[in-house]
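Entry for DQA complex. Fields follow.
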Amino acid sequence: MKKILVVHGPNLNLLGEREPHIYGHTTLGEINDILEDLAEESGFSVEFYQSNHEGRIIDFLHEKRKEALGILINPAAYAHTSVALRDAIASIELPTIEVHLTDIHKREDFRRVSITKGVCVAQFIGEGVESYKKGMQALIKFIQEKEIKP
Ligand code: DQA
């Protein structure tokens, strides 16, 4: 089955209890279930990965790069800090869509820049779980359109 990687960065394991006034009450497990249903409806399987360690996320992307057709990633704080993660996404040449639950442009100054955005095919932000859903739908569409050879 065609596979999509869904990667969650640091602190997202605590979704549901982490600053719920900012990030909502939905847990990471619940988000993953929603994403899995969406992907399966279109004939894709999903492999999920969450880590609080930059290098582990990069290792995961390297290890899985030949097994998947695309990546949906919420880099969390690494979006604002990690040149290494940007380089990893650029290196493996899989279509990647970045998502954020919150609108990073309307928060603290240090969140306004996403280093990783430039190597992603699209970014969905500011709509909570809906950001993830739109990101997954756009990624599936992107992969399907790329597969259709005119
Ligand atoms: C986040 C936004 C980031 O600035 C923050 O560090 C996160 C979550 C979001 O989904 O809104 O951990 O990526």
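NOTE: Residues 129-147 form the longest helix (19 residues).
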